[in-house]
Write a structure and sequence with these properties.
Layout lengths: L4 H19 L26 E4 L2 E4 L22 H7 L24 H15 L7 H25 L2 H23 L7 H15 L4 H13 L31 H27 L3 H18 L1 H24 L6 H5 L3 H8 L2 E3 L1 H7 L6 H6 L8 H14 L6 E3 H29 L1
Parallel strand pairs: 3-4
Antiparallel strand pairs: 1-2
Helix pairs in contact: 1-9, 4-5, 5-6, 5-10, 8-10, 8-16, 9-10, 10-16
């Protein structure tokens, strides 16, 4: 594991450096943002930014400039960000930013009935212990992934069955991916530093990936799923486009036909490009070295064709899960998202897939995508048992809870690709004639 040690050090050093920078943001304790120097007091301007978390108002005017998640924080300017914040952060982290609190007493922002019901349900689950670590469950998942990993090695060397070995290795990569995802959401130990370390080890050492890139991208996706200006997962244009403002052309009206063939493999290739580019642009040379070493050793040990089959299996499996969970649902513009509270936004942009225990294993319990987006820090083993209560909560407020078997789910995905692709192609053709 020595080649990965420099990157592990770099992750924690960089994390500490960024937290120090973040601590410098904002006004002094008790300073009214309305009196802050240069504040214009106009909603949406970076000169006067605040947000509310659990009834407390925080001035983030300066903090927004160094926010690790980037400009996504601007979406919550002068809004109640409670649900979104707690979906990826801990309450304890707020202690670090007490100096951003606005001392002046303010009336809490109004919340919708679904927000009130969600907060009550989330508190109920915490009291019932559903956020407590589940070590035996995750140990079993890790044991399965490691067993698949070494079985692939054994089959390759003992029987020279390279295709079978590559397929098994691809399946192991999928299972390592779900575990990496679990660690990234602090589901496993509920200790931020330990889970982050394990997230790094699994993704960088067993998958040859870039945990820093994934964390940044995935947190932004969770904050505002399927929101055009903020969710990096839907930046699939011009090959796959969902709204007229995305790049595209005449080919998009056929995107539902070529998605099953081209979508997952191209997704894998593009992801590989992004992780290497991220390492270079941010000068994460330790992570970059680790990825080079992993891929070089893999090529030397198994050969190029083995690597290609493994990535194809991994890519088709993983990308299909992502696509059916989100690409089948509405893609929102900033203006459309502004009209929704966060809980409703999650329900509008995610879909569950039913199918029993095998589907739970194959999808890493992300077939309960609605529950995962609402309670991402809850150990995923609980998503199935709570899904009925979540559905009841949604439907009691007239919010659609979209859940369907795998085949109808893929049918909806292809139908959405067809209708959105046709609309994008027509918009581009009309624009071209108008020029």
């Amino acid at each position: 594991a020595f080649p990965f040690s420099p990157s592990l050090y770099h992750v924690f050093w960089d994390s500490k450096r960024r937290w120090i920078q973040m601590g410098k943001g904002g006004n002094r304790v008790g300073e009214d943002p309305k009196l802050a120097k240069g504040a214009k007091g106009k909603k949406g301007t970076p000169d006067n930014m605040w947000l509310e978390i659990e009834g407390k108002r925080y001035d983030v005017t300066n903090f927004a400039k160094v926010h690790p998640g980037g400009h996504v924080i601007e979406y919550f300017n002068q809004k109640d960000a409670t649900e979104a914040y707690l979906s990826i952060h801990s309450r304890e982290l707020l202690e670090k930013y007490k100096h951003l609190l606005v001392k002046e007493k303010t009336e809490p922002l109004p919340v919708t009935r679904i927000q009130q019901k969600f907060r009550a349900l989330e508190e109920k689950y915490r009291k019932e212990g559903l956020y407590e670590p589940q070590p035996f469950f995750f140990f079993w998942q890790l044991a399965v992934a490691i067993t698949l990993f070494f079985t692939a090695i054994y089959v390759f060397w003992a029987y020279n069955a390279w295709w079978t070995s590559a397929f098994i290795m691809g399946v192991s990569q999928v299972q390592f991916g779900w575990l990496m995802h679990d660690f990234g959401h602090r589901q496993v130990t509920c200790n931020s530093k330990l889970d982050r370390t394990l997230n790094f080890i699994v993704m960088n050492c067993f998958q040859g990936g870039n945990a820093e890139w994934w964390t940044s991208k995935h947190n932004r996706h969770h904050l505002l799923p399927n929101t055009l200006e903020h969710d990096p997962d839907i930046h699939t244009d011009p090959l796959f486009s969902f709204v007229a403002s995305m790049k595209g052309g005449f080919w998009n009206k056929y995107q539902h036909l070529y998605f099953p063939i081209l979508g997952p493999p191209i997704g894998v290739i593009f992801m590989a490009y992004l992780v290497f580019r991220h390492s270079i642009n941010h000068k994460y040379w330790g992570i970059f070295l680790g990825m080079v070493v992993f891929n070089s050793v893999y090529f030397a040990f198994f050969g190029f064709l083995h690597y290609v089959v493994m990535r194809v299996v991994h890519g088709i499996w993983f990308q299909s899960v992502v696509a059916v969970n989100h690409f089948a649902e509405t893609v929102l513009t900033r203006e459309e998202a502004d009209k929704l509270d966060w809980v409703t936004l999650v329900a509008r942009t995610t879909m569950n897939v039913t199918g029993g225990s095998f589907m739970d294993w194959a999808f890493g319990h992300l077939n309960y995508q609605i529950e995962h987006h609402l309670f991402p820090q809850m150990p995923r083993i609980h998503y199935g048992p709570i899904s009925g209560e979540v559905r009841e909560m949604m439907e009691s407020e007239g919010i659609k809870y979209d859940t369907r078997p795998l085949v109808p789910a893929f049918s909806k995905l292809l139908g959405h690709l067809a209708s959105s692709g046709k609309m994008v192609a027509q918009a581009k053709a009309y624009r071209k004639k108008s020029e």
